[in-house]
Amino acid sequence: MEILIVFGTRPEAIKMAPLYHELQKSSIEVKICVTAQHREMLDQVLDFFEIVPDYDLDLMQANQTLNGLSAKIFIKIDEVLTIEQPDLVLVHGDTTTSSIVALAAFHLGIRVGHVEAGLRTYNKKAPFPEEINRQITSRIADIHFTPTKQATQNLLKEGILQDYIVETGNTVIDALFWTLHKIEKEDYSHLEIEELKRILPADKKIVLVTGHRRENIGEGFHNLCEALLKVSEREDVVIVYPVHLNPNVKDVVHELLSNKENIQLIAPVSYPAFVWLMQQSYLIVTDSGGIQEEAPSLGKPVIVTRTVSERPEGVEAGFSTLVGTDRKKIINAIQDILDNFTGFDSPMNPYGNGNASKRIVDFLSHYFIG
Ligand code: UDP
Prior knowledge:
α1 packs parallel to α2 (about 40-50) and α9 (about 220-230) packs parallel to α10 (about 245-255). The protein contains 15 helices and 13 strands. By secondary structure, the protein is an alpha/beta fold.
């Protein structure tokens, strides 16, 4: 029995890495194909998790349109699927890679499993691709691995039968625990972490910032930067911002925040360095999905620069707060946490406990025997 895992971006790689290693321990044959919808940021993750893809489609190009990328994925993945003829293709989440590869597999009569299935905003606002990518993938998939009860409920409401849904928790928590275990070893040393220790003053509260969503490009990032400038006037704070490589994000952030006191703009860091940064931080400001899932396990509050989230569990449990991209709201939310946060009452992470990959592999082992 053979499974082909296909992904293309940094977060997918982080979330599929533990599953790949778990599958390798099983009797199922597993291969990896990367579309490389991201390049450098994907490679950082492949290196850390010691993954050498069997196929690398190398499709990233500056300024390519989603339609151009989709067309290239269709053509290239068709070749790979035709050669490999896997019994199952596993895709992840909500990227263009996931939805197009799922459809290509369907066209060839190959079964599809969807990891991190069932997340929804039901806000299908064009041209932002995530929500439609996840909905398309749900329509095609034969097995749905959901991270939470809410995600399972979403799929049931859409008419997907319980028999085809497996609730597992999110594999990102497996990746996080694996990484923490590694970086907390006494003899672990990492160049990027050493460099971060050198540039970050030990006596200040770290505000860690990331952002990449298309819906925030333009006014959203502009407002975020203005808010960070205001917060950086505080003497007790240092803002650390690994800036996404998308030029539409990078250009505005560098223009507004370069060479400012109490603000460190850095390039995206490797996963272990980012996990280390999250551990050191006082709070995190982000539009990222994965970070909303990871932060509760580290006891860090998250301010989400979005007005909706397909991850309501963290908001409901009080781990994250949706503030959108209004400058004043971002400033107030940051100040409030800096001045008043004393820790969470219950550290139970609603996104998982580190066993998701094992649950998926247990299911797949029986699925193939049955
Ligand atoms: N991350 C990383 N290096 C960074 C910034 C983030 O390794 O410089 C990790 C982070 O821990 C999380 C993932 O990348 O697991 C989030 O990726 P992103 O925000 O690009 O995508 P999303 O989570 O929104 O899908």
